[in-house]
Amino acid sequence: MTSHASYLLSQQGPFAQAFNNYQERQSQLAMTEAVEQALASDKQLLVEAGTGTGKTFAYLIPAIELDGKSIISTGTKNLQDQLFYKDLPTVFKVIGKTRKVALLKGRQNYLCLHRMDFNLQTARFTTKDTLEQIVKIRQWSETTKDGDLSQVNFLKDDASALPFVTSTADNCLGNDCPSFSDCFVAKARRHAMDSDIIVINHHLLMADLVLKEDGFGELLPKADAYIIDEAHQLPDVASVFFGQNLSSRQLMELSRDCLLAYHAEAKDCSDIKLYADTIEKQTADLRLLMGDEVPRQFWRNYLEKNDIAEHFEQLEQSLSLLTEVLQGQAIRSRELENLAERAEALSSRAACFLSCDEQKDVQWIEIYRKSFTLNTTPLNIADNFNKAIAPYHKASWVMTSATLAVNQQFKHFQQKLGLYNAETAVFPSPFEYREQALFYAPRDMLNPASPEYTRQFIASCLPLLVASKGRAFLLFTSHRALNEAATILEQHREFNLFVQGQASKSYLLDKFRVTENSVLLGTFSFWEGVDVSGDALSFVAIDKLPFSSPGDPVNQARINAIKQQGQDAFFSFQLPDAIIALKQGVGRLIRDINDKGVMMIGDPRLIARGYGKNFLQDLPPMLPTRNQELVEEFLANL
């Protein structure tokens, strides 16, 4: 019996009448029936939906038809905006039904009126450029209805003004804030509480689950259905929220806010200034002692250095002393009370980084040019996640992505989140890959570890780039390789290069789509969530198989833990992660039933190593070839 949701998407339904040349997709109909059944029976359902399945409408329609509240979570803000501003209105219009919908983002996305005004009044603590940004934001604040800072066109993602005009869970004054009645975060959350469908992202979902578990209230209402799109990203996001971090930015902001409060309302308490200044200096000194900028490293390697351990202990003591002073002054204002709470939280966190249970957690550090961040990450989050969602056992959970399964099995994903009892389903792509795409593995490629590998990879790409007249993505597994490739390709003036890091992701994609002979170079942020269909993209090349770095402290600790359990870490952990990542990258090529193109993977291990077949069996069934001339001819005719 055909379900109501699948009828709506069928050739006899309203979508076929609303769109010209509409073709029903069997995978989409099957998926929407599975989602509908899961929502009706409070089940956990894991769904891999191949590219082109139409999974968004397949889960939106059951959510709209549900007599209850649904929360839809995405991995990216782009998809979040697309669902709210485009997909949901489209479905409402076609089926002639509407529900109350809310778009809710994390608090860092909304303007904080109190912090903006407070920092404008004490502008001596900001640079001229930052002050000018805040003044412009102040002008914008007079017209905005929702305070969503993504609408401020001149504001970059790393704008120096952002910490001065947004709040954090630490520094928010809540109901005691003088601007609470106009608070954009509070308004957005109140609207979400009253809505039938709430569109959020994974960071907000996990923040809410962790807050509720710790007994600190809630960010979201309880729902009857939780639908997680781009679910393959959820384990990494969850790992962040089940761990903790301490950053130089947090320390510097605490110090700065203490100095502001001292000058504004506690001038008679010189100890506030004394310890705030001390913490600022100790934080800066620590960064200097850490040396050069480095990627993720084990924190214990730095604690073993006597000078760093000694300075870190002194910093923790200063935080403890500042906490005592602020607690003594907290009765004077909500601002000082909040600062006391923040100092106590950072002091407690700092103490945790002086010791670690390495059987359960790994502690690591990232060192940037002027700052650092300490992190604690659980080795296994399955128990944490199960405990966090246990109160929602009467709700339905649907998790979907184009890349959840390995060889059509969900064991790897289920183990990460502890979802052992979830039902699973794979719905294949409707695309005719053997007719739409060639899969090209060039011959005689060097070992990927060779210092000449990237140069050879680009040399293999060049004749294909000429044949395709650009219209290409070159995807890399490291920034080093990307930068080397960009340097080589800059000598070839016939191509218009768009290189990750030179502008925002959205700008690069917009320019790529409308520019002839365009070649876009990117790392992992371009491997997923990027949709360029039609003639603009005909060639995608990936330099190496995307194995995560074994030197990464989190990976290394998890590999060691798996080995200690007598298991094979490569086949149970590293290989499945790499297969899912490669499936995402390959998925950039064919985005529509009319698309055609070439997928090239340069890494010779795909053919030469035994595990190469594990990758190949999970890729779309494109027509394979190792004949370069055939590939050039195919591209030239597109």
Automatic annotation (TrEMBL):
GO terms for biological process: DNA repair. This is ATP-dependent DNA helicase DinG. Keywords: ATP-binding, Helicase, Hydrolase, Nucleotide-binding. InterPro entries: ATP-dep_Helicase_C (IPR006555), DEAD/DEAH_box_helicase_dom (IPR011545), DinG/Rad3-like (IPR045028), Helic_SF1/SF2_ATP-bd_DinG/Rad3 (IPR014013), P-loop_NTPase (IPR027417). One of its GO terms (molecular function) is ATP binding. Residues 14-291 form the Helicase ATP-binding domain. SUPFAM superfamilies: P-loop containing nucleoside triphosphate hydrolases (SSF52540). PROSITE patterns: HELICASE_ATP_BIND_2 (PS51193). Pfam families: DEAD (PF00270), Helicase_C_2 (PF13307). Belongs to the helicase family. DinG subfamily. PANTHER family: DNA REPAIR DEAD HELICASE RAD3/XP-D SUBFAMILY MEMBER, REGULATOR OF TELOMERE ELONGATION HELICASE 1.
